[in-house]
Design goal:
Elements: H1 2-7, H2 9-24, H3 31-56, H4 64-81, H5 86-109, H6 115-134, H7 156-175, H8 177-187, H9 189-194, H10 199-225, H11 236-246, H12 258-277, H13 282-307
Helix pairs in contact: 2-12, 3-7, 3-8, 3-10, 3-11, 3-12, 4-5, 4-6, 4-10, 5-6, 5-10, 7-8, 8-10, 11-12, 12-13
C-alpha cells in the first residue's frame, strides 16, 4: 500500500489540495470554477505530456513554448492569408511543431550536442521566426470555424483533447515497445543500447512527439484567444517541466507517468486559481506557488524514499 500511494502520490496530493481549498473557499468549490481550472490547464497539460517523453530519456526541451507560438503563427497565417481549410491549418501547425522536434532530436543524437544547448537555441530560433513572420504583431481575423478547438464554443473540447492525449501516452508508455524503451534509455542509455534498443531513433521520436504536442498546444491556444501571437506561451516550458517534476518525473530520466504529469499541471493551476480567488497579489502568487512546488516535490521524494522507489545513489 505504501508503494502504491508513493507511486500515485501526485493524484493524492491533488485530491487533498482540492478538498482543503474547497473547505476554505466557497468560490473554489463551484462547478464553474472547476470547469475554469480544467479549461486553463489544457495547454500546459498538452505541453507537459510531450515534455515528459523527453524527460524520460534524461533529456529536456526548453523550446516548447517558442515552438507552440511558431506553430500557432504558421497555422493561422495559412488559414487567414491563404484560405487553407481549418483542419489543414491545424495540421500544418502540428507539423511545424513536429519539424522543430525532429531537428532537436537529430542535433542531439547525430550532432552529439546536449539537449539543453540544442533546445535553448531552438527556443530563440522559433521565437524569432514567429516574430519575423508576423512583424511582431498578433494575427487577428481568424476563421470562425477555428474557435471550436480552443473551447470558445464548448469549454470541454480542449479538456477532452488533453485527457485523451495523456491517456493515450500512458498506454503507450506501459504497453508498447517505444514506451518501455523511453524508460530503459533514461535508466541506463548504454545498457539500453547493448540490449538492442535503437537509442538514437527512440530519442528522436521523443523529441518529435514533444514538438508535435507543442504545436498542438499552440493551435489550441491560438483558437482559445482567436489571436495568433508571436509572444504566446512564454515561460510555458518552465511550467511544463515543473508539472512533470511535481508529477514524479525524474530529471535524471527513467521515471514518470503521463497521468501523474497531468496531475502535476492541475496542482499548479489549482494553486494559482486559489490565489486569484483570494485576491492575492501576483508577486505573492509567484512566491507561494514556487514555494509549494518545492515543498510538494520534497514531500513526494520523501515518500518515495520511504517506499523504496527512490534511490539516492
Amino acid at each position: 500500500m505504501k508503494r502504491f500511494i508513493a507511486k500515485h502520490s501526485p493524484l493524492f496530493i491533488l485530491a487533498a489540495l482540492c478538498v482543503a481549498m474547497a473547505f476554505y473557499s466557497e468560490s473554489f468549490r463551484t462547478t464553474e470554477n472547476f470547469q475554469s481550472v480544467a479549461y486553463r490547464t489544457a495547454v500546459i497539460g498538452i505541453i507537459a505530456t510531450g515534455q515528459l517523453a523527453v524527460i524520460l530519456t534524461a533529456g529536456i526541451d526548453l523550446s516548447v513554448g517558442s515552438v507552440a507560438a511558431l506553430a500557432g503563427v504558421v497555422g493561422c497565417i495559412a488559414m487567414k492569408e491563404y484560405n487553407i481549410p481549418v483542419p489543414l491549418g491545424i495540421l500544418l501547425g502540428m507539423l511545424t511543431g513536429l519539424a522543430c522536434g525532429l531537428i532537436n532530436g537529430a542535433l542531439c543524437t547525430k550532432g552529439r550536442i546536449p539537449p539543453f544547448i540544442v533546445t535553448l537555441g531552438m527556443m530563440m530560433v522559433a521565437r524569432g521566426l514567429a516574430l519575423l513572420l508576423t512583424g511582431g504583431e498578433p494575427i487577428f481575423g481568424l476563421p470562425a470555424g477555428f474557435a471550436w478547438l480552443g473551447g470558445t464554443e464548448t469549454w470541454w473540447t480542449p479538456v477532452l483533447i488533453t485527457v485523451a492525449l495523456a491517456v493515450t501516452f500512458a498506454i503507450t508508455l506501459n504497453f508498447t515497445r517505444f514506451g518501455r524503451s523511453l524508460y530503459a534509455i533514461g535508466g541506463n542509455r548504454q545498457a539500453a543500447r547493448l540490449s538492442g534498443i535503437p537509442v538514437d531513433r527512440v530519442r528522436v521520436g521523443a523529441f518529435a512527439l514533444c514538438g508535435a504536442l507543442a504545436g498542438t498546444a499552440g493551435m489550441v491556444l491560438a483558437s482559445r484567444t482567436s489571436i495568433a501571437s508571436p509572444n504566446a506561451a512564454e515561460m510555458s516550458e518552465l511550467d511544463a517541466i515543473a508539472a512533470c517534476v511535481i508529477g514524479g518525473a525524474s530529471l535524471m530520466g527513467g521515471e514518470g507517468g503521463a497521468i501523474a504529469s497531468l496531475a502535476g499541471a492541475l496542482i499548479m493551476m489549482v494553486l494559482r486559481n486559489f490565489c486569484n480567488l483570494e485576491n492575492i497579489e501576483v508577486y505573492w502568487q509567484q512566491v507561494i506557488v514556487g514555494s509549494l512546488i518545492v515543498a510538494l516535490v520534497f514531500y513526494d521524494n520523501h515518500r518515495k524514499r520511504k517506499a523504496g522507489l527512490l534511490n539516492d545513489d
